[in-house]
Task: inverse folding
């Protein structure tokens, strides 16, 4: 049993040498989405900005592998699909954002597990969806129902 613990400890220390996951410099905010109101932005900032903006907050555990690898991958993927800090630059995948928020897929469970303040109530989801719709990003739930 001691050998297993020692081997695991050595492996944990060795994976710290992998350089991926420690580049925590946020690029500059180039052009932010034209938010319709401060409330919508505040909800998005709390629930979305860590992965979908250039204003990511990097907690202490993002410096420790393998958590650093997972967080870095999520931020890179999130920014590549939708980046509220680089609005109007490149392709923003906004087509399914309303559906993902409504279905509870965004923010993802692995994020809200650690960041309880990112959990959205139904009221907050509606406010966020309505605000994003007003900004021309996502159709609101009511608009989707009217189209059916």
Result:
């Amino acid at each position: 049993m001691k050998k297993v613990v020692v081997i695991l400890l050595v492996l944990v220390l060795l994976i710290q040498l992998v350089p991926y996951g420690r580049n925590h410099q946020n690029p500059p905010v180039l052009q932010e989405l034209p938010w319709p109101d401060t409330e919508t932005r505040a909800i998005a900032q709390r629930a979305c900005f860590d992965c979908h903006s250039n204003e990511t907050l990097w907690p202490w555990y993002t410096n420790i592998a393998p958590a650093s690898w997972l967080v870095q991958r999520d931020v890179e993927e999130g920014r590549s699909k939708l980046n509220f800090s680089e609005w109007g630059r490149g392709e923003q995948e906004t087509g399914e954002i309303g559906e993902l928020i409504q279905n509870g897929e965004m923010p993802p469970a692995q994020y809200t597990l650690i960041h309880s303040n990112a959990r959205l109530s139904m009221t907050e989801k509606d406010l966020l969806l309505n605000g994003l719709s007003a900004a021309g990003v996502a159709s609101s739930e009511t608009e989707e129902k009217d189209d059916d």
